[in-house]
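Posting this for the archive.
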Amino acid sequence: MAHVYTLVNQKGGVGKTTTAINLAAYLAQREQRVLLVDLDPQANATSSLGMDKTKVTSGVYEALIDGASPHAHVLHSPQLKLALLPASPALAGAEVELVGMLARESQLRNALAALEGNYDYILIDCPPSLGLLTINGLVAARGGVIIPVQCEYLALEGLGQLTHTLSRVSAALHPDLQMRGLVMTMFDSRISLAQQVVAEVQSHFPGKVFQTIIPRSVRLAEAPSHGVPISLYAPNSAGAQAYQTLAEEVLQGDRVVTEA
């Protein structure tokens, strides 16, 4: 059974998509079978992996709305050794179309059930909102939720709203929903506030914050414009080393749980 992790934060610009694509890339480097699901109508994960999002003709929308088998819509990257269920322009209308559907919150989980046996990891990149697409992502998160948190004060304010949403989804739709962990991103060691934010999050979520901290990095910001993850664009950079370490931490944690 695949580890299905949903990456979510309703605040934009926190490194959510960056974390999704680079964690996927490094898990694939470790011989894991990885599927990245782009659930964001902005399709940033799709374009960050070198796909022209304006030319994607099918993807997660068809699986969500049309009930089509997702197998035919998965794209494969031999170079990265990972798979992508892309976002197409049609996904922008999915929020409205889902409203009138039966079991609307479970559409993605039902669609991905057909794929779980083919992968070790399925990572779902959600839009920066708490709408129906994100709710679908949360309900599909059999392995748990990964929350990227920018190392700035305002990032703390949104965590309360997000954890409240997780509690409501757990109570109403997904009783086994768990927080897999929080990833501190865009960390600048020269700024004392960044260190304070890390300490504050660790205090409020003991045992739930990944030890790996992702630094603020020009290389990480540049990589998407070249259509590749940091593992190919600047493999020796500090950002690359951080995401490689994060992937190792995720793998190690999952091994411990499996063995237990």
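The chain has a mean pLDDT of 93. The chain has eleven helices and eight strands.
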